[in-house]
Fold:
Amino acid sequence: MVDPNASEATKSLYERLRNLAPSHTLFGHQDALAYGVDWKDWHQDRSDVKDTCGQHPAVFGWEIGHLGRKQLSIDDVDFHHMQAWIRQVYLAGGVNTISWHLDNFLGGDAWAAGPPTVNAILPEGQKHTDYRAALDAFADFVTGICPSLGQAEAPPLIFRPFHEHTGHWFWWGKPHASRREYIALWRFTVRYLRDQKGLHNLIWCYSPDIIESEEHYLDYYPGDEYVDVLGLDDYHDLGRLGRASELTRRLRIVVALAEAKGKLAALTETGNEGVKHKKWWTEKLWSSISADPIASRIAWVLVWRNANHKHHFGPYPDHPSADDFRAFTAKKEVLLLDDLQQIIHPT
Ligand code: BMA
Structure:
């Protein structure tokens, strides 16, 4: 692992995922506990996934854009509530993963792409101090999740910074940073959080947007010593214009690479906005994962958030794809939270 001193809980989560990946796929949903289509309630043990199929997802994605600057995340989730949910998920045996739509340090949001921001936040850059401050806020957030437990027992987090960099839309994307700069930023971030801030509960996940080949995938790869999970974000192939077989092809590349390196692979983000195909879950998503023995060895798949009737990627009970979602989640290979609990503590 990236962190030779990773906590026992972190090592054991990584091992558990490695053991499950060959035969199972964990299902994940972004912001699952925080809100869904037509509801938002911090205290309820509710998710659209559970309302639809009877179980919470096994993987819970959290987004920390605006951390350290505001009380609410970029998607209006209270950071203190998020910490409580992360704790709850951990205690229930689920998996937490964190993404970060970090504002541009030269002005604007994560999508304010163009200026040479990556260069500016590297150790020699004029905005480096601001970047350190953002990482300090991240470390405070992480240590604040279970303050009473202490560092050694902090919940493991799969951390997925600077995602989709093969695209152009974020300021850390390929057109706005050289390979050297992107890798230097990634490595600095690892060293700072691990060695200076003493966080030993992070599992580091690299997640480009769609790639065409192994070389393409590895173009900005920070190195085996800096990555634990080889991820892929792909909204193209299961959307209107794409082809499911293309997702299978790309997953094969990622899984084969991960396995050659003794690491994990995952479909870190995907979805079809509005889930416009009634059988999207079985005929698009599951068929592209299960079509190939190598591709099917991803550890998890996560679909993006359920903001409203238009912008949602997960199911909800009245949605036309709800039956198909139940058929998908009933597959023995697909694991939700109760399934995972059964594996950890069989009754
Ligand atoms: C995007 C959209 C936005 C959201 C952002 C960060 O894909 O869902 O509405 O703010 O992710 O979570």
Q: What stands out?
A: The longest strand covers residues 264-270. Residues 63, 65, 74-75, 101, 304-305, 307 surround beta-D-mannopyranose (CB under 6 Å).
